[in-house]
Amino acid sequence: MNIYEEIRKDHDKQRELLDKLVKTSGDTKERDQLFKELKDELAVHSDAEERHFYKPLISNDMMQDKARHGIAEHHEIDELIEQLEETDYDSSAWLKIAKELQHKVEHHLEDEEKSYFQLSGKVFTEKEKQDLAKSYRKHMSKNL
Ligand SMILES: [Fe+2]
Ligand SMILES: [Fe+2]
User: Fold this and answer.
1) φ/ψ (deg, to 5) at 51
2) Distance between CA atoms of residues 13 and 127, nearest Å
3) How far, in Å, CA of 48 to CA of 51, rounded?
4) Residue 92 and residue 105: Cα distance in Å, rounded?
5) Which ligand is nearest to the CA of 50?
6) CA of 98 to the centre of ligand 1 (A)
7) What CATH number corresponds to the domain at position 138?
8) Could you read off the pLDDT of 106-138 as tens digits, one per residue?
9) Domain residues for 98?
């Protein structure tokens, strides 16, 4: 396994949770459970990704702007999560913000998979890609 395969697995999980979340309605147990699961999943993933994917890229001239942009998007995602937390589950605004979150996360995952993975693939050695995969997964398992 390399770092890209590990991250992609978690991205697919996020897409699945988002798909399910936007199909929920009102103040239900299902919405509450899915939201909490997604929130944890996103938070731990962003942290693991920043440490074990973006951080080693920040010092590379070709990747610095991309890494900064990716990290800035993590903050935008956090803000939408906060907005959802401040909104009542049964308010009509909740689903609107959840859909905004879905759109934002999907766009972010696509940037990472279609652009950052390819570019960083030329920066990391095969050994680094495998070592990062291990440290990324270790962080995920420890914190989720
Ligand atoms: Fe990310
Ligand atoms: Fe990611």
Assistant:
1) -75, -40
2) 26
3) 5
4) 21
5) 1
6) 18
7) 1.20.120.520
8) 999 999 999 999 999 999 999 999 999 999 999
9) 3-143
